[in-house]
Amino acid sequence: MTAVTDSYFSAIIGRLETLRETLAEPMAKAANVICTAARADRRVYVFGTGHSHMLAEEVHYRAGGLAFTIPVLVGSAMLHEGAVISSVYERTEGLIQPIFERYGMQPGDVLIIASNSGVNAAPIEAADYGRKIGATVIAITSLAYSTAIANGRRRLADIADIVFDNGLPPGDALIDLPGGNFRVGPASTAIGATVLNAIFAEVAAELCKDGDPPVYLSANMPGAKEINQQLVKKYRPRNPHL
């Protein structure tokens, strides 16, 4: 392993070690909220724009994942329909509400919003929409980043009911290149996915007290077809992406 790759691994591992302690309380709160929602047959929605949308896909129809999670996918604000224009869309006001109305969010649901910068219009309006509906809003964001660039704008962290500060610096990247002009090695996706999967693992363990939790199996595992079909049948009516 070279010095650069070693530095990146060390940076990720070090941050995860720190977050295991600093996020213990909000993670416990989030797990409790999600368990309550699951037991009331509510849903957990996950939303992000740009690269943050990958966290919504991370928990959707995932082997070892919970079936009541729903990704909120906005093609124009992701990357595959045009990466450059997606940066425009996520900063444009007024686009989010009609998209969210498609999903039928209800009081008692949970909305997880991933936004590393935490100030763009899309995540802010999504948080406002979730609060208006009566959902619990959970944010995954960088407080250092949003504080540095807010310039009087509202921050996602100021709206959400529960905030996960991923501890990352403004700009996301961790490794300085020779010369000091560029940084590489973004970390928000790796850290965000770890935090989410840890929370949902905790939720699944708690739901085991009620019987078998609604967990998808990998399609190649014994019994997966039958179990997954039952889960899809139950959760498809409120999940347009199944």
From TrEMBL:
UniProt signal peptide: none
Family annotation (InterPro entries): RpiR-like_SIS (IPR035472), SIS_dom (IPR001347), SIS_dom_sf (IPR046348), SIS_GmhA/DiaA_subfam (IPR050099)
Membrane-spanning ranges: none
CDD domains: SIS_RpiR (cd05013)
Superkingdom, natural source: Bacteria
Domain SIS: 34-209
Protein known as: SIS domain-containing protein
Organism of origin: Rhizobium calliandrae
